[in-house]
TrEMBL record:
Residue ranges constituting the Major facilitator superfamily (MFS) profile domain according to the UniProt record: 17-430
Transmembrane segments: 21-43, 55-75, 87-103, 109-130, 151-173, 185-206, 246-264, 284-303, 315-332, 338-360, 372-397, 403-425
Keyword Iron included in the entry's annotation: no
Protein name from the UniProt record: Maltose/moltooligosaccharide transporter
Recorded topology in the membrane: Multi-pass membrane protein
Gene3D superfamilies recorded: MFS general substrate transporter like domains
PANTHER family linked to this entry: SOLUTE CARRIER FAMILY 45 MEMBER 3 ISOFORM X1, SUGAR TRANSPORTER
Highest taxon of source: Bacteria
One Pfam family of this chain: MFS_1
Protein's UniProt keywords contain Glycoprotein: no
Compartments, record wording: Membrane
Entry keywords, A to Z: Membrane, Transmembrane, Transmembrane helix, Transport
Length: 435
């Protein structure tokens, strides 16, 4: 059973709290949406080749592997008069804002990569203590609602971020990059993301009051079971979802890295990152990414009810199967409406990926280990991305003859494998229901 401070509040107040806990993700995901839809075009505009993209994207998974577990664990044990989580959130947000403003101004690939590493390190440092606020401030029976509400704001923010470049292009900002530069529309989009992070994270910091670091019941329980036993229980809860996460996030990484060159070439016939067709293709990828994130935000409202009715693992398996079809279709369909449909399917999968694993494993988490839980969960997210980043450049160069489009059906196959594995974990639903 989870060990948390008792929160005797009526449900309307809890619902308001879940919104306050989630607003910060709106700005963060605007930044992530712009980055995921535009980073490949930034790198290619500065001279990167398509087989270099996967390894250039490694900043996210590497910093996630190193930063999130450490910061998450530190925030569990670092009470200050401002709270355990708030100092990490504020400092990390300031670095995120600075990196977002600097990245589009980079005049060389080396500088751009350095800015991305700084940005990703700060975003990962912010993520663990921020997401841990759910376990800190909500009662156990509201955790699913809390994670789902965060997914709503994740989806809405990423929708706004992914669509920002094409909206700016429609507004008159050029979306075509000159050699050695980033397109003007992308520069403006990154600055807008920095402002959004400042406003949204500031809202959560101002509105959410952290509870005391631990209560008397929490201290007694920890003394009884010991730190090692608590960590062992946490690992036992996380282990069954680790492999599913591997396949899911491997597929998503391939989507983020290769959707822009694949769609620009397949749909618009682009042959260079400096021609108008590539700019149109890259902007349309922003629409696709905005679509799947928007769908994820809407579908997240339904997830708690679906989890209760059909079971978490069954719903997750169905969502991953739909995502597998969507990933494969992005490379195989050559019509805008068909690609939008694929993005809708990916959005359903993305909503479940951001919620179901936390619900399955989160019942073993106490407030005292919430930061560690988020950090360890992130290891299962970043390891597949590291593997993809290191391996896919070689695969494209030596096995696919320089072609990028087969990578997306491969991503679909990996997500389908995750769906099959999720069905094998149906017994976890009974344990979640009994917790």
């Amino acid at each position: 059973m989870a060990i948390v401070p008792r929160i005797a509040e009526c449900r309307p107040i809890v619902r308001v709290r879940t919104i306050d806990l989630s607003v910060g993700y709106f700005g963060l995901q605007i930044a992530f949406g712009i980055q995921s839809a535009s980073l490949s075009r930034v790198f290619q505009g500065l001279g990167a080749s398509v087989d270099q993209l996967a390894i250039l994207w490694l900043a996210g998974p590497v910093t996630g592997l190193l930063v999130q577990p450490v910061v998450g664990a530190l925030s569990d044990r670092a009470p200050t008069r401002f709270g355990r989580r708030r100092p990490y959130i504020l400092l990390s947000a300031l670095v995120v804002i600075a990196a977002l403003a600097a990245l589009p101004l980079a005049a060389s690939l080396v500088v751009a990569v350095a800015a991305v590493w700084l940005l990703e390190a700060a975003m990962n440092a912010l993520h663990a203590p921020y997401r841990a606020l759910v376990a800190d401030t909500l009662p156990p029976d509201e955790h699913a609602r809390g994670y789902a509400m965060q997914t709503v704001f994740i989806g809405l923010g990423a929708l706004a971020g992914a669509c920002a470049p094409i909206l700016l292009a429609w507004g008159g900002w050029s979306n075509v990059a000159l050699p050695g530069q980033t397109a003007p529309s992308i520069r403006v989009a990154f600055v807008a993301a920095a402002i959004a992070v400042a406003l949204s994270v500031g809202w959560t910091v101002a509105r959410v009051q952290e509870p005391p670091a631990s209560g008397a019941g929490d201290d007694k329980a920890r003394a009884a079971m010991g730190r090692k036993a608590e960590v062992a229980a946490l690992w036992h809860a996380l282990r069954p979802v680790a492999v599913i996460q591997f396949f899911s996030w491997f597929g998503l990484y391939l989507l983020w890295v290769y959707a822009t060159p694949v769609v620009a070439a397949q749909l618009y016939g682009a042959t260079s990152p400096f021609d108008a067709a590539y700019g149109k293709g890259a902007d349309f990828v922003g629409v696709l990414f905005g679509t799947y994130n928007g769908v994820a935000g809407v579908f997240a409202f339904l997830l708690p009810r679906l989890f209760r009715r059909f079971g978490v693992t069954r719903v997750h398996a169905a969502a991953l199967a739909l995502g597998a079809a969507g990933l494969s279709g992005l490379a195989l369909l050559a019509h805008p409406a068909g690609l939008i449909g694929c993005a809708v399917l990916i959005g359903i999968a993305y909503a479940s990926i951001l919620s179901a694993p936390f619900v399955l494993a989160g019942r073993a988490v106490s407030s005292a280990t919430a930061g560690m839980f988020i950090g360890v969960m992130n290891i299962f997210i970043v390891v597949p991305q590291l593997f993809a980043g290191v391996s896919m450049g070689w695969v494209i160069a030596h096995l696919l003859g320089g072609l990028a489009w087969p990578v997306l059906p491969l991503a679909g196959g990996l997500m389908a494998a995750g769906a099959l594995l999720s069905l094998c974990l149906s017994g976890m639903d009974e344990r979640v229901a009994a917790a």
